[in-house]
Specification:
The complex is a heterodimer of chains A (135) and B (191). Chain A has helices spanning 2-29, 49-70, 78-104, 109-133. By secondary structure, chain A is mostly helical. Chain A has one domain (2-133). In chain A, helix 3 (78-104) packs antiparallel against helix 4. The radius of gyration of chain B is 20 Å and the shape is elongated. Chain B has one domain (16-190): Lipid/polyisoprenoid-binding, YceI-like (Lipocalin, Beta Barrel). The mean pLDDT of chain B is 87. The longest helix of chain B has 11 residues, at 4-14. Chain B starts with a helix and ends with a strand. Chain B is 11% helix and 51% strand. Classes of the chains: A mainly alpha (135), B mainly beta (191).
Chain lengths: 135, 191
């Protein structure tokens, strides 16, 4: 349990920097991709900002447990194991969520694809870190 | 001294205030321009659904412009359905469905010529349950069809009306507080 928590926390810290740093740079250099977020579907009064920024840690703790439980199934060097882990997570969890999001919410296909790509990258980074620190 | 009030009343009866009434036409419009850290937006109310009247009256050196314009927030169109809904939500359309411009005064009597005349005036803007008195820069003119054009513009802030500019993705996308409100009233004079 301690190993899961520690690896989850370390992964969370790294993901926090990568995810929000990446998002900040994307908003700054590719602003056109984000114009569709001016939509009442997205929280606009800032009362959930803390929850938004905690996402990296929620995601990392969940993946740390998932990794610890199923790491024996992944073979090869840590880089390959991490990437495969990210792909497995994306297909098992992310794809169905994106599917239902697109079908139920008033969002564009481009937006949903960007969420899928973002989640996939996060899962691969988390997988690589977890494979390295909790082999 | 007893005769002074009678003298004043007689003067008022003999020289009533100069008064003109202007009926606002349906093709009057209002636009709101603003920006976020990623784009600019322009939202319009392309037409006015009421036949309200503005009254311009002069008494001595004071020019009063009285009358109200009540615009439905739901008629705002930002040329992007998501942005339109976002603006309506920000302006609390469900609670306060109309934006009111209450005209108060003009700096000088409009000459109503084809050449635009620059005048200033005070208005009260009521938005989302808050009210603010503002000075507006106007351009007044009258075209060949005797249509009076009153163009007004003014920078306002969301915060002037206790509104919070929208922010998305944890504040990574932020709407700037300042907005430019511009309106174009097309009117005809009536007696």
């Amino acid at each position: 349990m301690k190993k899961i928590l520690i690896s989850g926390f370390i992964t969370g810290c790294i993901l926090f920097v990568c995810s929000y740093g990446g998002l900040y740079l994307a908003v700054r250099f590719f602003p056109a991709l984000f114009t569709e977020y001016n939509n009442p579907l997205f929280n606009s009064n800032g009362n959930r900002d803390l929850l938004f920024y905690l996402h990296a840690f929620i995601f990392s703790f969940a993946l740390a447990w998932f990794w610890d439980r199923f790491k024996s199934l992944f073979k090869g060097p840590f880089l390959l194991k991490g990437i495969e882990f990210g792909l497995v997570y994306s297909i098992v969890a992310l794809l169905p969520v994106m599917w239902i999001s697109f079908s139920a919410l008033d969002v564009t296909i481009a937006m949903v694809l960007s969420w899928f790509g973002y989640g996939l990258m996060q899962a691969m980074v988390a997988g690589i870190i977890l494979a390295k620190i909790n082999p | 001294m007893w005769y002074k009030p009678i003298l004043w009343i007689s003067l008022l009866l003999l020289w009533p205030p100069e008064r003109t009434r202007w009926v606002i036409a349906e093709n009057s419009s209002l636009s709101v321009n603003g920006s976020t850290n990623i784009n600019k937006f322009s939202c319009e109310i392309p037409s006015y659904d009421q036949t309200d009247t503005l009254t311009v009256s002069r008494r001595n050196k004071e020019i009063a412009l009285t009358g109200n314009v009540g615009l439905k927030i739901i008629t705002f169109d930002c040329h992007n359905s998501m942005m339109t809904r976002d603006l309506r939500k920000t302006l609390k359309e469900s609670q306060f469905p109309r934006l009111y411009i209450r005209f108060l005064s003009l700096s000088e009597m409009p000459q109503l010529r084809p050449e635009p005349q620059q005048v200033t005036g005070w208005v009260n803007i009521e938005l989302a349950g808050a009210s603010k008195r503002l000075e507006i820069n106007y351009q007044v003119s009258m075209d060949d069809q005797k249509v009076i054009h009153l163009l007004g513009s003014r920078n306002i802030n969301f915060s002037d009306f206790n509104l919070v500019p929208p922010r998305k993705l944890g504040g990574m996308i932020k709407t700037n507080d300042q907005l430019t409100v511009a309106f174009h009233l097309r009117m005809s004079a009536v007696n």
